[in-house]
Each structure stands twice: as C-alpha cells, then as structure tokens.
Amino acid sequence: MKKFRFFSIFIIALSICGCSSKPQSNEGAVPKARYLYAKDYMADPSANVFNGKVYIYPSHDWKSGVTTNNHGEAFQMKDYHVFSMDDVENGDVTAHGKILDLKDIPWATSQLWAPDAAFKNGKYYFYFPARDKNNVFRIGVAIADRPEGPFIPESEPIKGSYSIDPCVFEDNGAYYMYFGGTGSSPAGLSSSSARVVRLSDDMLQFAEEPRPVVLLNKDGKPLGSSSNYQFFEAAWMHKYNGKYYFSYSTGNTHFLCYATGDNPYGPFTYQGIILTPVVGWTTHHSIVEFKGKWWLFFHDSRPSGDVTWLRSIKVIEMRYNEDGTIKTIKGGGSW
Description:
The chain has one helix at 2-17, and strands at residues 34-35, 42-50, 53-60, 79-85, 94-101, 116-120, 123-131, 137-144, 152-153, 167-171, 174-179, 195-198, 211-212, 215-216, 233-240, 243-249, 256-261, 268-275, 285-290, 293-300, 312-318. The chain is mostly beta strands.
C-alpha cells in the first residue's frame, strides 16, 4: 500500500512539473544557419520554389587573381550553377552543375553577378547581369524547359536594361523586376535607388519604363542616401499577409534591411534590420517560404578566411513577430 501511495504521488508530481515523454517543441529555440555547399565558393543565392523543391541560383566566386576591388573588379564571375533541396533545414543539397557560361552569352564580356529565376507557361526564365561590350552592366535572360537547365541565352540583353541584381516577383499573374546597385548604372542614369519595372507577357522585355523604388522613414519622408539604412544593392521582394516586403543591402553599413508597402510599386516604409553584418564586406540574400516556414538564404566569407570575393552560401529560418515585423538575425560579422 505504501509503495502504491508513493508511486501515485510521484506521478502527480511529474504531471505538475510538466514532465512528459512527448518530444519538446523547438519553436522557441534560436534558429541556426547552415552552409549549403562546401566544395566551391558560391554567393548571392537566389532561392525559388519550383516543382515542390527549393532551387538555388547563386553567382560563382573563384580565384581569378584580381585582388583590386575599387569598383568590384575582384568579382570576376564567369558562369552560373544551380542547386536544389527538398528539405531546407536538414536535407542534402543536390548540385546540378553549370547552367550558363560567359562564353555562351553573345553580348556579355565579364562579371556574371547575382541572378534570379522565374517560371511562366511551362518555361523557366533566368535573369542575370553582365557587362556588355561597352563595359556597361545590362540584364540578360536565358530560357530553359527545366529549372536545372540548361539555359539558352537571348542574343541581346533586355532592351533598356542597366545595372545589377535582378529580382523577379510574380503578383496576381503579373511579373515585376526589381534591380539596381549604387555605382553600377551607365552615365546619365541615377543609381541611388532601386528600380522596379513590369515585364512583358513573353518575359523577355520591359513592358514600361523602370521607375524608382521610393523608401520612406516612419515619418513618411524619403529615407535619404545619408541614412545608415539606405539602399545600396541586392533588391528582393516577397509578400507576407498581404504586405509587400522590399529588402536590400545597405553597402557600407553592411545590413540587410527591409521596408513594407501596399503594392509592388511602393512606396515602401522602412521597418528594420533582417540581418546584421556578416563576415566579409558584401551581403546579399533571398527570402522564400517552403513547407510552412520562411527561409533567409545569404552568404558570408568565413570559410575563405574573410576573403570578400570568395563567399559561401548558407540558410537560416526567418521568423516574424505577431505584428508582421521580422525578427533580426545575427550575421556574425564585426563591421
């Protein structure tokens, strides 16, 4: 009888303490980033969900021998690769190999920087910046029947295109391109803000003139180039709970920041920092929802020993607060 009474008291105590044999949720745990591909240097990961998988389209860093970097000369990327995964958190990453090479792009001469991809009507469209024969950055497009390519480039860049870092965003059947990078536009065109433009129905041209992306502070005034949170490059767009989230890199202050608006054209009101500085000068990202969670893909230079032009791609879960703001993630850098 005493043994039974003691056992009963023990069970009650366990119940009061909340002890259970059921596995505990890790929802409150701080997310941890993981590197995705250790065999080579990749950067600027553009993540898209196609056919139930996440496909990642990065730029491809390599040891070109160019070390001066006053105007990005050290970033001499010459081809593109693609990767895929069906489990972002713990799954294997499949390397599909090269999908496009500089030598196969008739109009391009150098610097295949950050790309993006989109799907429409059974075709996959790959958008990329490169310098043309006049040493001006233009944006090209290549087409494939499968997300892993191979992609066949158009013979000319998009007419009227300029600058870098294209991001293509679909909304209610229309496709918009965001692009831009301070100092990367041809003479006579301001590059102090990002641009947004609707694409043509065939996805190969602009359907209108690009317009500036207007960033405002909380008082409704222009954010301004003197702000620590100004646009520099790496435009990205995603939608969450009916709001449009425009995110970007700030350059010299090394943040990934975001602003929100009510339509794809903006204006967008600054909200805060997504990612604090990483190891390495540049920061570039993409944001995608997959299997009920949101993911931030980005890069840093930790594996290369802080060589800015030798970067590695990684991913971390991105979480929202109840009011729709994004919880800031620590990048691990010391800028």
